[in-house]
Design brief:
single chain, alpha+beta, globular
């Protein structure tokens, strides 16, 4: 009897599986997809039912040849690529290349890369799933048609190197629309009045003015607030009503792809891309003590919160053993899937609760440990008893005014002993119920007013999207699928359509231009509801309810009409010169707004005779203001002019104002001595993707570089001269520039 062959995507997965299947199996990695649409042409025969013209990926020729040779000698071939659409497409294409008649090819699915998971998968081989494969084909063809038709249009109208996509462009529009909301937002003033009260017993407690004459308190001006304070000064404060109730807070469900990406951003500051990369490594297998190799989590691309009966039984025993019976609910908790969930896989969970995060920490990278702990704790918490709180609400009457005090005291921590969800921002925290303690009071009791504090507030615009909140919005709207979110976000960043400032997405000038042009010319594909509806149609292909060519055809016909119209009617922004009232100080000509590789800038209309350019900004009324150069305080070594500081993307640099005659430029120095070589200074640099970093001015002799802002300050631990500023959403602190040192202090600015 000959050997059987198992084909997977990655070497890591192959190494893990090889440990389980023994000598009668060869395990080989395809290194991902082996066939794809060609890179430099459409690759879709539109006239022949949108037939995709797949070609062998050039770099995979040797891998495919190796698989072919091993398949010829094998009795059976098991295609074990990931259990999703992409995995099915990989398996289908490999089958086409090695066994077109499907005589000895079988498909196996491993939802966890453990001995048990692999054995179960091998016991249940199946035929290749045509519906699942065609669902991938439909998405690939649609995305190719949109990308390859729209991108050249943007090249001709805006600039080369841009891209558009069926889902990426809608994600960009959400960010741009939010930015417009923020810019157009007009804050409204309002006031609150908080009283500090004292009962017969401590502690003192606060209450907010809640009602005036039986209506919700709405104070719009300082004058109104002061008038109320005068009236309240002579009032008696009496407890009118006390309400006590026990609140239960149930645990969140185990992770699915989208919630893992959201929570990893909020808790760990992992991008979606980083989260999926680390999760993939935990799924594919990690070598533990004693040489055992196993996958630590189940498959990480899933939209189902379902958990197997066996896993539920295991976690319930774990909870009772480690926390006691009071932490175990009477019945196992069953979470409901969303209507759109495919339910093909379980939720993301640890494969074996015996592998606690601490017990495997020494075998994991820092990223792997942090993400594994997040997944592990969330899964355990999901089957624990709810947390319980006693909430007390007290209404205090002062004539026609009612103050309300709310206190909350924990009774039982329940699942919170293991896991607490992270809030997205301060607003979420502000919306929470009061957590202060209310002293023993009785209705009719008079309390003493210690002070009244009026406070001015302004309504806030909606917050910019973070990775977490953008993923949540995309999922809520049904745009794209969670498995694609990491790629979408990476693309809009790589194309410089957005910048990330303090963890939030800010559209660039270029991003706003592209989004506006696409929205005007392609209202259907830029519409959130239409995109969500298209996703539902593609899901029907996967379910075998809709033929994929029909789904693509219904999309393509109106798209082509919009495309033909856009070729004629879309504004040619790259040639557009927008007049301003600013005069060129070099030649007296008019300065106009042009669009370039990094967005819009001011340039002399007499170009190329005059090459004067400037950065500018617009106020809310659209008035253009030049961003003036800042003197650098030193002379140009080439021509003697005083050098100036200019901005470029997210960083600064020093330039000669005599450009283009004098082209001298130099990096902007922070003035901080390089902690590595002690000779150079740390200067600002910007990556090709527009991200600011700091490096030694003596590069390449010294290769020191950091993303964190350097500060000339002595480290309290090692005495080093340089510390680095790290900013989290909660605070800013300084860490030693020496990676071996653990020195850390609060940042006092």
């Amino acid at each position: 009897m000959g050997k059987s062959l198992i084909v997977v995507e990655s070497p890591a997965k192959a190494r893990t599986i090889k440990k389980y299947v023994g000598k009668n199996f060869d395990v080989v990695a395809s290194m991902g997809h082996v066939m794809d649409l060609p890179k430099h042409r459409l690759g879709v025969d539109v006239e022949n039912g949108f037939t995709p013209k797949y070609i062998l990926i050039k770099e995979k020729a040797k891998v495919v040849e190796e698989i072919r040779k091993k398949a010829e000698k094998a009795d059976k071939v098991f295609l074990a690529s990931d259990p999703d659409r992409e995995g099915e497409a990989i398996a289908w294409h490999i089958a086409d290349l090695i066994d077109e008649e499907r005589k000895k090819v079988r498909r196996v699915l491993f939802t966890e890369i453990t001995r048990k998971g692999v054995e179960e998968g091998m016991k249940n081989p199946r035929d290749l799933d045509r519906n699942l494969f065609e669902a991938q084909v439909a998405r690939r063809v649609l995305d190719r048609l949109v990308g390859y038709k729209l991108s050249p249009l943007l090249w001709s109208k805006v600039q080369r190197g841009l891209s558009a996509g069926r889902v990426q462009s809608v994600a960009l529009k959400l960010i741009c629309d939010r930015e417009r909301e923020i810019r157009e937002f007009v804050p409204e003033e309002y006031w609150s009045i908080t009283g500090l009260f004292r009962g017969k017993l401590p502690p003192d407690f606060e209450g907010k003015l809640h009602q005036i004459d039986g209506k919700k308190a709405e104070i719009k001006t300082k004058e109104e607030a002061e008038e109320i304070l005068v009236r309240l000064a002579d009032e008696t404060y009496v407890v009118r009503k006390i309400e006590k109730k026990t609140r239960r807070r149930n645990p969140p469900p185990p992770f699915i792809t989208s919630t893992l990406q959201q929570e990893a951003w909020k808790k760990l500051r992992f991008t979606a891309d980083r989260t999926m990369r680390v999760a993939q490594s935990l799924y594919e297998g990690v070598e533990l003590e004693g040489g055992e190799v196993t996958g630590l989590i189940t498959y990480m691309r899933t939209d189902s919160v379902r958990v197997s009966d066996e896993a539920i039984s295991s976690v319930r025993k774990f909870i009772e053993r480690n926390f006691g019976k009071e932490y175990l609910p009477q019945k196992a908790r069953v979470f409901k899937n969303k209507k759109s969930a495919q339910d093909a896989h379980e939720a993301i969970r640890p494969t074996n609760l015996d592998y606690t995060p601490e017990s495997v920490k020494g075998r994991l990278t820092r990223d792997q440990f942090r993400l594994y702990k997040l997944i592990y704790d969330r899964f355990v918490a999901s089957q624990m008893a709810p947390a319980r709180f006693e909430q007390t609400t007290v209404d205090i009457a002062a004539g026609s005014y009612i103050f309300r005090a709310t206190g909350q005291v924990p009774i039982f921590d329940g699942y919170l002993k293991v896991y607490q969800e992270e809030k997205e921002n301060n607003r979420d925290t502000e919306k929470e119920e009061g957590k202060g303690q209310i002293p023993p009071l009785s209705e009719g009791e008079e309390v003493k007013l210690l002070k009244l504090e009026p406070k001015q507030h302004f309504t806030q615009p909606p917050p910019r999207y973070t990775e977490s909140s953008l993923i949540k919005k995309l999922e809520e709207e049904g745009v794209g699928r969670p498995s694609t979110y990491a790629t979408i976000i990476r693309t809009i960043k790589d194309r410089r359509y957005v910048q990330v400032e303090e963890g939030k997405f800010v559209p660039t000038e270029l991003g706003m231009i592209v989004s506006d042009l696409l929205t005007q010319s392609f209202p259907r594909i830029m519409d959130v509801k239409f995109t969500a509806q298209m996703e539902e149609e593609l899901d029907k292909v996967e379910e075998g309810k809709l033929e994929w060519r029909k789904a693509v055809g219904e999309f393509y016909s109106p798209f082509v009409e919009d495309l033909e119209r856009a070729r004629v009617e879309m504004k040619k922004v790259k040639d557009e010169l927008i007049a301003t009232d600013i005069i060129c100080e070099k030649c007296g000509g008019d300065m106009v707004i042009r669009t370039g590789r990094n967005g819009r800038f001011l340039a002399c209309k007499n170009y190329p005779e005059c090459k004067n350019t400037k950065n500018f900004e617009e106020d809310e009324e659209g008035n253009v203001r030049v961003i003036e150069d800042i003197p650098a305080g030193k002379e140009c070594p080439l021509c003697g002019r005083e050098l100036v500081i200019r901005r470029f993307r997210s960083g600064r640099y020093i330039a000669c104002p005599g450009s283009p005659e004098c082209k001298h430029t130099e990096p902007f120095s922070t003035g901080v001595v390089c902690p590595s070589c002690k000779q150079g200074e740390l200067v600002e640099k910007v990556t090709r993707k527009g991200k600011l970093f700091y490096s030694c001015s003596r590069y390449p002799e010294c290769s020191f570089a950091t993303w964190n802002e350097p500060v000339q300050r002595k480290c309290p631990a090692c005495g080093g001269e340089v510390m680095l500023r790290r900013v989290t959403k909660k605070k800013s602190y300084l860490v030693c520039a020496d990676k071996e040192c653990k020195g850390k202090v609060d940042d006092d600015g």
